[in-house]
Amino acid sequence: MSTEDPTARRRGRRPAGQDTRAALLAAARAVFGENGYERATVRGIASRAGVDAAMVNHWFGGKEGLFAQAVLKLPFSPYELVTELRASPDDELGYRIVRTFLTRWDGAGGDQFQALIRSFTDHEVANSVLHSFFSGFFAELVSGIGVDREAFRTTLCASQIVGMGLVRYVAAFEPMANAEVETLVAAVGPTVQRYLTGTID
Amino acid sequence: MSTEDPTARRRGRRPAGQDTRAALLAAARAVFGENGYERATVRGIASRAGVDAAMVNHWFGGKEGLFAQAVLKLPFSPYELVTELRASPDDELGYRIVRTFLTRWDGAGGDQFQALIRSFTDHEVANSVLHSFFSGFFAELVSGIGVDREAFRTTLCASQIVGMGLVRYVAAFEPMANAEVETLVAAVGPTVQRYLTGTID
Question: Which residues bind DNA (chains A, B) (predicted)?
């Protein structure tokens, strides 16, 4: 990845700044759609967008991040969230995670969560997305806590958060579908908290 | 539903016994595939199979059960499980549920769980399947316990079990994908137990 300011370097010749970002998003939707997640390459997407491949890292942190924003249309980056959440005390993390995901997903109408689940119909993509999105996210959170069995804790957290999203947004299963965020924080928060810092055996 | 022995009544004229069952499964796959879950009718499926509509109740307990076996290829009926699980003490139910689902799904290679998730790409079907399979199942279990907020507890249980299946079978996310059943029972059992009988607010 280039250490230069890429928008400055490219200005005038190729799409700059937000234009680069938009061009990459459009190219990514096309290339992921045609080739699937695994066969799509960062180089191929950048080439279709007419920008340098380094722009993918610059704007999206890599292929997974690009997929998350282009295909899943996530309105937030899981990496930003880690920073935000790490500011909380360890014993409130589980509650804050549930609140944060629900608030973000609710704000976007639950649409990207549905896109996330639709991407799971492809086993390869499901694996990649869960790894990048949930596991990257939780692994980074968990690694700061100093507990045993970090990888297992990560998958436990992912299982509850994905399941909650699925029931609330995809199946729209009442009363979870329209429950208040704080009702779910109270019920599910202790689960995620235990998976992060509590006894799991 | 007929109270006669249907295999005896139909023998010689229409497919009998296991043949009826197989004919219904084949017809169901075709009709659910063409019309989706909601628009498919028991009458239409039975008609395509050349058997009486009462056979659907006889062999599958209704449309949901037929869908579960034909499309999801579940090797077991959730209704059988309720009876089996109700024999356990209430304070072991959460652990037994996790153990039972994992054992059944593992035994079938996780394939039907993948079919279950694929069916979620259709919002209507996702809703129907979750309702019939998980909610029917958990609602019946929960109603025998005598706790408050039965419907909410039902969706909480469904969210954890569906999420665990998704991470283990669809995303095949390690170390959950290959964890021992008892490792998951120890970690996830307390969650389902709390959702069934514990404090959720």
Answer: 41-60
Pair B153, B106: CB distance under 8 Å: no
> In chain B, whose CA is at the least distance from the CA of A128?
B171
Considering only residues B191 and B3, tell me which one the structure prediction assigns the higher pLDDT: B191
Under 8 Å between Cβ of B141 and B85: yes
ipTM confidence score: 0.74
CATH code where residue B11 lies:
1.10.10.60
Within 8 A by CB and 6+ apart from A156, the residues are A195, A200, B176, B187, B188
Q: What letter does residue B90 receive in the DSSP assignment?
A: G
What pLDDT is stored for residue A74 in this prediction? 62
**Residue type for position A48:** R
- The verdict on A121 and A170 lying in the same domain is yes
At residue A184, what is the residue type? L
CA dihedral B129, B195, B139, B28 (to 10 degrees): 20
Contact status, residue A155 vs residue B167, Cβ threshold 8 Å: yes
Q: Contact B156/A187, CB-based, under 8 Å?
A: yes
**A181 and A82, same domain (yes or no):** yes
Range of B34's domain? Answer: 6-70
Quick one: B102 and B133 in the same domain? yes
What residue type is B188 in one-letter code? V
Rg of chain A's alpha carbons, rounded to an integer? 18
Residue with tokens 């509590």: A198
The CA distance from B55 to B48, in Å, is 13
Give which of B119, B155, B201 to mutate to test A binding, by max A Cβ within 10 Å. Answer: B155
Are residues A144 and A196 in contact, defined by beta-carbon separation less than 8 angstroms?
A: no
* A87 & A62 share domain: no
Question: CB contact, 8 Å: A200 with chain B?
Answer: yes
What digits encode the pLDDT tens for the residues A53-75?
A: 999 998 888 887 888 778 766 65
**Residue for token pair 């054992």:** B103
DSSP, collapsed to helix, strand or coil, labels residue B55 as: helix
Domain count along chain A: 2
CATH number at residue B156: 1.10.357.10
Question: Does residue A65 lie in a domain region?
Answer: yes
A123 touches chain B (CB under 8 A): yes
- Return the DSSP state at B83: H
- The answer to whether residues A48 and A139 belong to one domain is no
Q: CA A196, CA A193: separation in Å to the nearest integer? A: 5
B194 contacts in chain A (CB < 8 Å): 190-191
